[in-house]
Amino acid sequence: FVSKARSGPVSHSLFVAAGMYTSTGRQRGAPADGTWAITVRNALSGTVLTTCHVLPSDLVVHLKQCVKIVKDVPEITLMTEDSKFLNPVDTIQNSGLADGDIVLAVMMAHRLVATASSDGLVNTCDTESNTVERQLQVAPPQSLLSACCSGDGHWLVTGSSVGTPKFWDAKSGEVKRVFEGHAGSVCCVDVSSDSKFVASGSYDFLGKVWEVESGNCVRTLVDPKLEGEGLEPRTHLLHLLSIRFSPYDSSVVATTSADCTAKVWNVQSGECLHRLCHAEDPYGPLPVSTVCFAANGQELVTASDSFCTLWSVRTGLEMRTWEAHTSTVTCVAHSVEEALLLTGSKDGTAKIWDLQSGLCRRTLQGHERPVTAVALSPDSKFAVTGGGDGLAKVWNTHTGTCEQTLEGNRLGILMAMFVPC
To answer: How far, rounded to the nearest angstrom, does the alpha carbon of residue 330 sit from its chain's CA centroid?
Structure first.
């Protein structure tokens, strides 16, 4: 496996406005020539957390380390004022920042988990007290098919048998946008990292990308090879099963289908960049049940039956395939900054994989029905799983022990993820 770049130690040029001295012993307020001042605010409250003095060549992760000195939370995700998430391994300059800019910090804790269920309920649960803090009824029972929260926790996207994806304010429960255009049930949805776009997949064989601000469909993903077979324009030969944005590039989308293929798309041009499939047994052809991008956006993982495959996004070539479970893999999630993959399966287990070594670190057992949703906390110390039994469970990834069982839903879980406080 090819692991993503790791950041080195904090640069000696980094200073923290919250402290009197920099890491090199210079007094605060006397930055070296060439450093930039970046102010970091709390994304929810707007309060200033700190001002960091960094070199343009320093990595974004140095800003996170700067914030952690003044705000001790498990994980911090940084984004620009226009809601673009910053890649921790990009340099300050390459990420588009400049001297004097303001960056917003999304404070992630292990305390809150959001779940969505076939009962039409979206719950935000406090994992310490095992109570439901907020509850939204977003669809009638048995009609909700898919849901996804934005990375900052502000927004929620849902898909249902009604055929219209909806964009919600996750806290107030207000519907902000209804996206009209699908001719069938919407079985999969995703929201881009900057919350400006929504992707949806349907039983009408089409994947669509929508602009949140206008509500317009900016791209219907159409494979010209299928048009050549005399079919109506469509993304896949059969209905879609999952759709995902690349984590740092909303112009790249991956789709999977019951037609035994996954595809990678350029949203701006509409071009199908890669068609990913296994031509022969034992790995295929089988329906591709789910997909996720690696944190660096350079690889993606697909699941077919009990197998998982790691692919190169750049070349479309298979990097490795392995048997992950004893039954169909239903859901996959990649860690934010490590080469870890979490898989869930109809065999009732979830597994944590080290993609660098290819080894299974932990098997999480506790659900009595298939595991249908999985997510890792940003620091990878905890995992959350949702099952067909209507339960969500929070796990310690180092010990493999279940630390909390959340019982706020009555039917199978469609989404389970950690959300900001």
So the answer is: 16
Average pLDDT score over residue span 305-321: 95
Full-model pTM: 0.78
Predicted confidence (pLDDT) at residue 19 exceeds the cutoff of 50: no
pLDDT at 280 over 70: no
Burial class (CB in 10 A: 0-12, 13-18, 19+), 73: middle
For residue range 406-417, what is the model confidence (pLDDT) as tens digits?
998 889 999 999
Q: Please state, as a whole number, how many other Cβ atoms lie within 10 Å of the Cβ of residue 192.
A: 25
Amino acid (one-letter) located at 94: N
Distance of alpha carbon 298 from the chain centroid:
14
Token pair in block for residue 243: 């759709």
Task: From 152, 127, 147, select the one nearest 381 (Cα to Cα).
Answer: 127
Q: Which residues contact 157 (CB under 8 A, 6 or more apart)?
A: 147, 148, 149, 150, 165, 166, 167, 168, 189, 190, 191, 198, 200
CA dihedral in degrees (223, 239, 348, 124; nearest 10)? 90
- Residue found under tokens 């206008």: 214
